[in-house]
Amino acid sequence: MTLGQKIKEIRKRMGLSQEQLGKIINVSRQAITKWERDEGIPDISNLKELSTILGVTVDYLISNNTTLPELSMKIKLNKEKYKNKLSSYEEILKEYYKEPWEIFILSTNKKINKLERILNIFTGGDYYLIKGVSDLSPYYLAVKDNLKLLINIKNWTMEVIELPEDTSKKKITYKDMYFINCGKLKYKNK
Q1: Is the pTM of this model over 0.90?
Q2: Which of 48, 71, 73, 123: CA 20 to 30 A from 163?
């Protein structure tokens, strides 16, 4: 798999258009097109930026390794662009994941181990409550075709994690957290 093929595959699996990826790393859509066609290669600073944003190493991008790793991506958001933090979530999701993407709002809790369950019993449920609400940042599930992406927006950074195709839309487990689908996000028309 060539560098261009890897960039294209990762970009598509993260649900980004060439234009969106170009904006994120501050290059033109045409530059992304050239790279994906192997008609040019990113300079070292763009290669580093690509690896940071797409959650892979530079070594992986330029190696002959054809197996794509579990993908995650972090995008720094421009806080000046959005009116305020709370109303910006919908704007951010609309910008990156337009229809035909379906966006679902998720509620979250952290998994607790046996010791934590015991502590939870002795505290009358307070331990579980405290652990479960330690992260109040919003989580979303974006779904299109066979792609399922877990999205978290926190501290003006959007983290996007690719989930396996067989992930349920109703209940999702990822690392030490589990999520329950609370319903589809309906965008407000302005």
Answers
A1: no
A2: 48
